[in-house]
Design goal:
The chain is α/β, with parallel strands linked by helices and 193 residues long. 46% of the residues lie in helices and 16% in strands. The protein has a 5-stranded parallel sheet, with helices on both faces.
Length: 193
């Protein structure tokens, strides 16, 4: 039985479908949801220290203050995004909490899943292939091999009969409810990768 679902959140257009699917699955199973955003230098918009040349990094106090300000703003943006997602999930009837941690995304996801005692981890796939995957690594691949629980990797949203997963305007009819239960049961049977 699934009581706790941990979902790794990125703030990209592709990740919205992962969040929507996680909320849908949590609602169908009655599970609690934990939203996790991992701050990592691997993220596209992570603030970097500005340098004017490629020689050994030498920056003064003003460069460091500018970097610290950008990093603080970036962290706050993540917390604000998590709060908004929590409110959306709770409006859909799912008990939700969130946390933002810093570190290696794969390791951090697995560590939180272990300490929070998650029953299922939901992660998106960035679709890295070939050399990019070899050099940058794949978070979903790491989590699959090191997670303390079942893992569901989503490349696209879980679709219901109506071909969309809209949480805000979710009205259940007998047909959609039956379809959702069937989908949820079939996913739960195939959740271990």
């Amino acid at each position: 039985m699934i009581n706790k679902i941990l979902v790794a959140v990125e703030f990209s257009p592709n990740n919205k479908s992962v969040f929507d699917s996680a909320v849908y699955l949590a609602k169908e199973t009655g599970a609690n949801l934990m939203l996790l955003h991992v701050i990592s230098a691997q993220e596209e918009d992570y603030p970097m220290v500005s340098t004017t040349d490629y020689y050994p990094v030498m920056f003064d106090a003003s460069d460091y203050k500018t970097y610290q300000k950008k990093l603080t703003e970036y962290q706050q943006k993540g917390l604000d995004g998590l709060k908004k997602l929590q409110e959306t999930a709770e409006a859909a009837g799912v008990d939700t909490e969130y946390t933002q941690l810093t570190g290696n995304p794969g390791q951090t996801i697995c560590e939180l899943a272990d300490t929070w005692e998650a029953d299922l981890i939901i992660v998106g796939s960035r679709g890295l292939k070939g050399l990019k995957e070899m050099f940058l690594g794949s978070v979903s691949n790491y989590v699959t091999h090191h997670a303390p629980c079942s893992v569901l990797i989503l490349r696209t949203a879980i679709e219901r009969q109506s071909n969309s997963v809209s949480i805000a305007s979710e009205e259940k009819s007998a047909t959609n409810n039956h379809t959702g239960e069937h989908l949820s049961k079939s996913l739960l049977k195939e959740e271990t990768i």
